[in-house]
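Notebook entry, structure prediction.
Reason for the run: the old model in the group folder had no record of what sequence produced it. Starting over properly, with the input documented here first.
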Amino acid sequence: MGTHFYTATLAAAIAYFCGSMTIHSIRLLQFKNHASGEYRFPARITGICGPNGSGKTNLLDALYFLSFTRSYFSKTDGASVQHGCQGFRIEADYAMAEDAGKVSVVLRETGKKEVAVDADVYTRVSEHIGRFPAIMIAPDDVELITGGSEERRKFTDSLLSQLNPEYLRQLMLYNKLVQQRNSHLKQMGEQKMPDNGLLEVYDHQLAAPANYLFAERKLFFEDFAPRVNRLYNEISGHKETIGIAYTSPLQQDSMETILRKNLQRDVLLQRTSSGIHRDELVFTLGEQSFKQVASQGQRKSLLFALKLAACEVLREQKGFPPLLLLDDVFEKLDQQRMQNLLKKVCVLQDGQVFITDTHRERLENTLSVLDVHYAIIQL
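New structure, fully documented this time:
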């Protein structure tokens, strides 16, 4: 383990340390394959290099954990505990505007998770979301373009939850009510006893959060779609028209009407089959379905455009740029697109950037050409 520090100019270093949000160092204990260790980030741009299995992606995931209180790659907290151990600890030193302090996420042996900023432990972990905004770009993220609608809803909800705490509260309420309604539908199916009275209560309670989330999503994508089109063309180097259509059942009916119309189907399936949890984003290239006609390079360009548009919005709303975590982005991307992408994130934006790569020389050569201030961590 080691860090090599490259200083382009004194001015760049001063600008970095006076930035709005910076993670200066991180300490890991029993987190995935990091038994223990401390890593320092003396430059705005940090390259994390090493062979496969050395822990590069896990270090990025630890940074993501500090923002979202969960892993980007693992579905459960327990999956992030080092094999053979119980619990983990992530702690980082941060600076924000004229403030400085510590942020930590601890998973106790009991399975309880504690999130603290400057030793103040949150009563509700969800209250932390948005305080240290971050955007991750990873190889499997192409599923955002080619996969099912769940991936696109997850992207939407993750971004809007960082922008607006009320959105996250309404989303959690909606998901809780849908889960309760589904449990009741399953119980009705197992017991062969209809109880539409309780279903009507759930239907009425779901209306308010559904309407709120629908309105927020609809308004958001009116501004977001043009950003994505512009960034796509800047990354790809070609002028193409990218469309993003937000579709929702609530565009035709109210939530209560939707639930009433689908009652028999829901009883048969024993789950809530329609609602804003079925919303979708439809991407087009010109007049055609993006999924069907786009090349691999075009798909990557759209993925990066979506993520960078998210960075732009977070910067405007928060007043400072989010952490940008780039995992193995060199793979399956041609040199021109890669140069355009890194110029956008390393030169034209002033946020903190972390980039993993198995080839240290390739990463150093690329960053040197851009003439940016960076440091390399070798694992």
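Summary: The chain has a mean pLDDT of 90.
The old model has been moved to the deprecated folder.
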